[in-house]
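Action item from last week, closing it out:
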Amino acid sequence: MSTNPAEQKVLSAVPPAPAAPAAAAASEPTPPNRRVIIVAGLIALAALGAGGRMWYRSHYYVETENAYVSGHVHPVSARIAGVVTRVLVDDNQMVKAGDIIAELDPFDQRVKAEQIQAQIDTAEQQVLQSEAQIAQVQAQASGAAAQVAQSEAQLLRAKQDADRYGQLYTSQMKAVSKAEVDAANASRSVAVADLAARRDSAVAAKAQIASASAAREVLKAQARVLRVQLKDAQQQLAYNRILAPVAGRIGKRTIETGMRVQPGQQLTAIVQDDVWVTANFKETQLADLRAGQEVNVSIDAMPGKVLVGKVDSFSPASGAQFALLPADNATGNFTKIVQRVPVKIVLKAEDIKALGGRLVPGMSALAEVEINQPDAAKNAAR
């Protein structure tokens, strides 16, 4: 193949492409991306801020998530056995102290009260009869006393007659006959015996008075016992009406019409509106806690809402001491565990009222206390 000499000359005149600058560019380092630097700086600042916040809160705040809303929950139970005839409340209903919750069938208690009343009437009639007997025995005793006086007079006369006849009939003088003397002596003996009999009758009459009086007192005592039993029966009759002991809301209602209940059986519960927070702080957090310190309380059921309370008091023992089976550390198997102490935190009454019953016992909460509070003593006084 022939080549044009002119074309070869032109091709030889074109210089080859330089390769050195490309190699130099490949060997130089790539500059860092500005966006990466900014993101890394923001992350570092965020980490410093979070660390600073954690350090600050660890030194000036104590908090616990082991906190719950507490309140007064009053169980309502039956005091006597019976069959429920009416139920006058419903779940979550507001009641006042003394309101009727339910009624039991009063037939058995009413019959018992009537029986005791009949026994009281009988005892009172027996007391009246006993008093009449006492009056009769007293009359007999008065008659016996009069007869004793009469017998004493007769004995005095018989003694005088016997002495007189004895003086008229002697060995020197026999003005009367021996028969008359014997008759006078016999009359005196009869008078002595009659007086003794009359006195015994009077003593017996007095004994009958004492016996009748004692029997009357026994009947009166029985009547008093029956009156006490009647009061108890009437009280048992009143127990057929189950009343609300306090004002609050009905919860956990298990009573139904027709149910037979037993004494002590819980039928429902009444929850009062007065609630507080029980926060279980670690024992290592208690050093800087004082009564009166303000507490920020967050309720899990109300996200974003913070209630302000104050430390009211500390439990007299840790929660483990009130457990059903407290730990016995003297067995040798000892493991040190940080204990928790319940702390009572009271809330403002207006805050509780503003929530309209939404704050109920058993709710979970978070309690946070700033330990550097100079006015804790003033808050406690308020």
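Closing note: The first strand starts at residue 61 and ends at 77.
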